[in-house]
User: What shape does this take?
Amino acid sequence: MRSFLRTHVAVWLLIPALVGVAAYYASFVDPQNYRGYWPAVASNSAIFLLFSCILASSSSAIEMSRLQRSGILDLPSTRTRLLVTLDRLWPSLVLAFLVQLLAFAMLSLGTWGVPGFTPIILWSSFVSVIAMHVALGAVLGRYLPMAAAVPLSLVASYSWLGFTWSVPFFPLRYLSGLEVVTCCRLDMQLDPLGPFVTVVFSLSLACILLALSVLRWRGRNAGGITTRVAFLALTTVAATSLCLFIARDLGAAPVMPRSQNEASCTETNPSVCLFPEQHGKRDPSQLIIKASDNLTRAGIEVPSTVRFSINASTSSTLNMAARPYMKPEEVLHSFTSAFLSPQLASYCGDADEHQSRLLVASVIQGWLLDRASVDIIEDPVSDPPTRVGIEQVEQLSPDGQALWVSTNLPRLTDCSISVLELPPS
Amino acid sequence: MTWWLTSHRYLVAVAVSLGCVALGALLGEARLLVPTASGGVPFGELPVFAVLPLLVPIVVGTALDGAERPPYVVSARRVYRYDVLFSATFVLIYAAASILVVMVWPELTATLPGLRNLVAFIGLQLVSGWWLPYRYQSSVPTIYVFAAATFGRADQGGVSAWAWPLESSATPTGFAFAVGLLAVGMMVSLHRGDRGRLRHW
Assistant: This one.
């Protein structure tokens, strides 16, 4: 054990990696984005691959470089070169994954007790990404002098993770494994195809790079070297094209709407369908029912079911956006925005007309928010132009206001008919 | 001298330096992005002019490490002082090439920040020579660049003062700092001089 701790580089590189993780957590992580939803906690921990992958590749570059200079690989041995190499490299993989686990544990603070689980495919993708970076470090350590291999392994790991993110060609992102950080709001779930592509690519590349790092170029048993190198090159091309092909339709982020079967609906009017994470602390259903009563009293018809979904609302279902922990203002904002379509108003070929449609849309949303917030929060609308527009609408009678709003709501996205203008002030 | 130059593989180092200047001028303001935790603004922008010049300290460090063999360590000549000059020479080569590029194509704005970074990187490398053998010296500027890219973000979208490798405007202050760092590094290494030999053996 003592010699293990003393001789493996990954052990002492663990300290700076953990310092980096802690510093990053303290400086940049916003718990609002993931707290209270296990798949989001796990996928957000992918950002810490930056640290675990650098640990993996630089420690394996040093290990491989030492192995290479020691000449052990060329001694006669009953074990294969691959096994001798793996015997040096496995701590890099295990300890880098430990960094990833600790980062996940940090992010999971505040989510304990919430039902749900983290997708297994996500963990497989983390392991395989780290394995690929271990193999990358091994190749650099094998073929370059150590003085160059260590800094270049840092550059290569960091640049691969960052580079794939900065190109506008989306399928490339799924090769590196960082793309899952954009997952997920409560009303979305991880598209397993995204991490699956990462697993396939990373594992293939890990095997190819590892094979390259133990390749014997001359001496006995070096026959067929051209065949072997050609085989490795072909496999790389095949794995890359296959993964780009699978990922071609995934878009910018591997998310899809969450299945509504997981939600359970209340027996109230309107019926509010909550995901398991939304029960208990800060259950928004009472607030939504109250806001809906307020709107009904103001003369607006509220659909009979309120769901949390990224789909557009229909006449029978209102689809709200959701996070696990929402403040009352956020619930009300999300509730009233759900009456409008996601793009607010259609563009019907004329920029000026579109501007007036957008203004009407924002006034409608402000008016709904204003009415829904009665006895819940004070002064919900802060935007001055919207405020002025609402005051113009309020010159109408209460029934007239409700009529103006409910007439305009469907017209906002209907280009065949123009919207009712704001009443003149 | 021929032996000394050959043992340092100076041709590789010269080629890499000139290649860095050329490639850096061509890539210009290109940047790598690293995402934030869950959406938001893409953060951790890493300009190419902060990464590319790292190749010069890496190749210089490799050359110095490769030359430091037993006959070198016991040499009667003051080879460790020559090594400091070896590093400094690449600053000169890089600076000459960069200034030439800027004079011919003034619109290639990323050349000067690249030069400032290179000067400061070699400075950092020389300073770290007080503690580290040649083998690990070039890791110091590398780690510094990535720490700056990850943690050096200021509130208003700019970069903190300590994250100077990411700064895209080449100010005289930045150059003064880089040259100062280089001077300190050279003094540290010259002072350590031949006494440093054998320490790492």
